[in-house]
Amino acid sequence: MRGTMRCMDTPDPRRIGLIVVDHGSRRGASNEMLEVMAGMVADVVPYGIVEPAHMELAEPSIQTAFDRCVERGAQMVVVSPYFLLPGRHWDQDIPRLTQAAAARHPNLPFLVAAALTLVNVLYGFFVVPESLPEAKRTTQIFKNVLLK
Q1: I want to staple 24 with a disulfide (CB 3.0 to 4.6 A). Which of 6, 9, 57, 133 is the partner?
Q2: 68 is a domain residue
Q3: What residues have CB less than 8 Å from 25, skipping those under 6 apart?
Q4: Residue 81 lies in a domain
């Protein structure tokens, strides 16, 4: 006999935590770029909680970002890798690290989503700004980070 599958109630989008995860670097300027990207994502998604995380080499880690989402009131956490191309990190490392982070919060639903890629960023850089309110448009997105 098959078990029954219970559908999860979708929480209010403002109570969904989104974690944008990159590889992480020993170079501070590279890590700062993820913070800029996470801010850009926060401007265009309906989720009320957006946190950056690095898979390794730097803080905040996936664990730290997951804990921050919970502290900020997340009722669900979505982890989205932010990598140039698919690979082992997308389908093995990040899901494993996310599951370990979620262990501290056993009743909180979570999932690892499809990755944000360079194509998404380029599309957003050239197309999306015109669809945003003028106050949310960023004309020199990575200027401060790239000039360091």
Answers
A1: 57
A2: yes
A3: 31, 54, 57, 58
A4: yes
Q: Output 8 or 147, whichever has higher pLDDT.
A: 8
User: What's the CA gap between 93 and 102, in Å, rounded?
Assistant: 14
Tokens of 140: 């020199």
List helix spans (H) across the chain: 28-44, 62-71, 88, 94-102, 118-126, 143-146
CA distances from 84 to 23, 34, 81, 97, 145 (A): 10, 13, 10, 19, 18
Task: Measure the CA–CA gap between 117 and 59, rounded to whole angstroms.
Answer: 21
What's the pLDDT at 144? 43
Is 123 part of any domain?
Answer: yes
Which residue's entry shows tokens 């009320």?
Answer: 48
The alpha carbon of 96 is separated from its chain's Cα centroid by a whole number of angstroms, namely 16
What tokens appear for 46 in the block?
Answer: 């309906």
Q: Give the pLDDT confidence of 71-99 residue by residue, as tens digits.
A: 999 999 999 998 776 777 777 899 999 99
The tally of domains found in the chain comes to 1
Residue 54 annotated to the active site: no
Q: Tens digit of pLDDT for each residue in 49-63? A: 999 999 999 999 999
Choose the catalytic residue: 23, 54, 89, 105.
23
